[in-house]
Known about the structure:
Blueprint: H1 2-24, H2 31-43, H3 49-74, H4 76-84, H5 92-103, H6 107-110, H7 117-127, H8 132-156, H9 158-166, H10 170-205, H11 209-217, E1 223-226, H12 230-235, E2 244-245, H13 251-257, E3 264-267
Parallel strand pairs: 1-2, 1-3
Helix pairs in contact: 1-2, 1-3, 2-8, 2-9, 3-4, 3-7, 3-8, 4-7, 5-7
Amino acid sequence: MDHVLALLVPYGNVVVFGVMLLENLGLPVPGIAVLVLAGALAGAGKLSLAAIGLLAVTGALLGDLVWYALGRWKGRPVLGLLCRLSLNPDTCVGNTERFFLRHGMPTLLVAKFLPGVNTIVPPLMGTLRAGVAGFVAYDSGGAALYTIVAVGTGYFLGREIVNAATARVAQLAGVIGWGFATFVLGYIAWRLALRLRVRRALRTVGVTPGELRALHSDGANVLVLDVRSPLAVKEDPRVIPGAVRAGHDELDWLASTLPPDRPIVAYCV
């Protein structure tokens, strides 16, 4: 913490801008911690409140604009890349798309408070060809709300935070840091093990396009389900002939009503 303070006091504006830019580009940097500490320093009279607020919003917006432009240029593959880097790649796009369909463009106002959603929404907006002006307006609003909460917390607790940060609490910080690192590594290992187990299971039950064609040729009464998200269908409306659309909310109902002896093939890409 002392090292962070040593950087923030003389280079506070640069650090706030850089950290917010990198965080919204997807790098694992502690943006909210830096904003809280910067707010505390502003409350102690060591930094300008207006400057750190403006630079935090600008850095966040620029980072999001990069992903928006990539989504607009490359489309859905950008979302696939982000989700392959996540701990839950099979559901990250679907969950974000459903959240967006429910709330629309105002999703950007709260996205920064929702881990995962914050990373996926900007390229999703680009993929959907959302208007640049609307994106900038809502994304700036969301960045401003996030900054106000974080910096405001530090500002009103400024004296206590600065005093605690400058005290010799290295031992406690080390214990907390190692404990948090152990928890994160354990969670990552559990998610990877679960994903590997799912992949192995899918290898045994998957059907190739050629095998599906052969089943139809043999007269098998195969039910093909198109379980893609609504936004994926909007981007690419092509379907396998005879496939039945089945949304996320309909899968439980289908599982309980379809004949158990009828072959079922589902596809989601």
